[in-house]
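Me: Here is a favour to ask of a fellow structure person. Could you put it straight underneath, so I can go through it closely?

Assistant:
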Amino acid sequence: MPVTALVSAKSGGVTTTALALALASTRPSLLAECDPAGGTIRAGFLQGQVGAGFGLYHLAAAERTGPEAMANAFASHLWAMDEAGHRRLLPGLTDPAQAAALSRTWPALSDVLHVMAAEAGYHVFIDAGRLALESGHLHPTLTPAPLLHRADLVLLVVRGTDQSLTLARHVIEPLRAELEEHGTGADALGLLLIEEAAYRAHQVAEALKTPVLAALPWDPDTAGYLTNGGRPPRGHGRSPFLRYARTATEQLEAAASRRRIHQQLPAWQGNPQLAGALQRLTQTKGLGRG
């Protein structure tokens, strides 16, 4: 399964979109909320069910101990978003000031996420938040750059509005250059379009010179529920937003597969100690709690 990172040029609904994809996926899914500006799912969609003692920030100390400690900490800080445990969340930061402590944790977390995709069969989604650039490169603290560098796909979430496309134009080329120089290649970059206004996929792709890999309809009721939690709107499970999100996950899997075949990329190869630790955890059903 692929590791897909989602980003935006500004507040473009990245978290809501990533959550929709994770919930709608026909495969087991894992959403890592890695926005350095802070996570919103625990206070929004989860309505405060998850306390501050749980989540991304607590992996920093474990990473300094070693791969097995990192694997165990990761597993113990996952939250099950459904009864079967097929939808899992790594809750994000509760305070943006915590982001500086994660600068050396991102590569190790990337290892873990790729193990979960390659060995445990999860479609992994990364909410990487708003892109922050410094001198034309990804900011080392305000953007989780190592996660983007190693992702199978990097999706820039855009809306079909003039304002959103204008903002996206400013980050497309630096992001493409960054992925070409430090990532798995510029062709990892694609767009995920929220069809809020008149512009459609072919127009957006032409305007930004970047392929639209998936599109979701404008559905403020369902999006509002995923953002704020509370009582779900009637029939939200059959809403266009989640139905299209289900299709989008399949399109993203196909795109990642085509890209792997085209580039003849091997399956993830990393730390065998880390892979073994996570494999034991998944086999013994020790992965996560909720």
User: Anything to note?
Assistant: The first strand starts at residue 3 and ends at 8. The chain has a mean pLDDT of 88. The chain has ten helices and ten strands. Strands lie at 3-8, 29-33, 79-80, 87-90, 123-130, 133-134, 137-138, 153-159, 189-195, 212-217.
